[in-house]
Design goal:
This protein is α+β, with helices and mostly antiparallel strands and 152 residues long. The protein has one domain. Helices cover 41% and strands 21% of the residues. The relative contact order is 0.19.
Length: 152
């Protein structure tokens, strides 16, 4: 696969979904984050990671726009132009009829995804969660950049 496949927002959303630890019964997301107190202690009496249990709610899936499916990124992650369709009208017809669609990588076809309910989440926990999310996305971006550099 080309690096643009791994850069594709649908593929990245699928990786995010795999990391999601959601309890539908309790409507909570559980996330393991770095413990800010761990960095402050020299005797390591604090654990390095803590679990945040955050209230959740459903939102329409942004990856598939609530359809439950999207085009397989293997088909169009490098981009498709009008010339591509003009050269192969059968491909264009199949593409627009949804023959290359797959179940959404993010919502699994449910059309909604659980997200942190920011209005109900404790502010301190929400700040830790947002910091954790930022770190994950930065690490993913760095990994993709390295993969492009080394030609993976």
């Amino acid at each position: 696969m080309s690096s643009s496949y791994y850069d594709d927002c649908r593929v990245r959303a699928g990786r995010d979904a795999e990391r999601r630890n959601f309890d539908q019964t309790r409507m909570v997301l559980t996330v393991e984050v770095g413990n800010p107190k761990y960095e402050m202690t020299e005797d390591e009496t604090e654990p390095e990671f803590i679990e945040l249990v955050l209230p959740a709610k459903y939102e329409v899936c942004q990856t598939c726009c609530g359809k439950g499916s999207h085009v397989n990124p293997s088909i169009d992650c490098d981009g498709i132009t009008g010339d591509d369709f003009a050269e192969d009208p059968d491909f264009a017809e199949s593409y627009f009829e949804g023959h290359y669609d797959v179940t959404c990588y993010d919502c699994g076809g449910l059309r909604v995804v659980p997200v942190v309910d920011e209005d109900r989440a404790p502010k301190e926990a929400l700040a830790l969660y947002e910091k954790h999310q930022k770190e994950i996305h930065e690490a993913d971006a760095e990994a993709r950049s390295e993969a492009r550099y080394f030609g993976y």
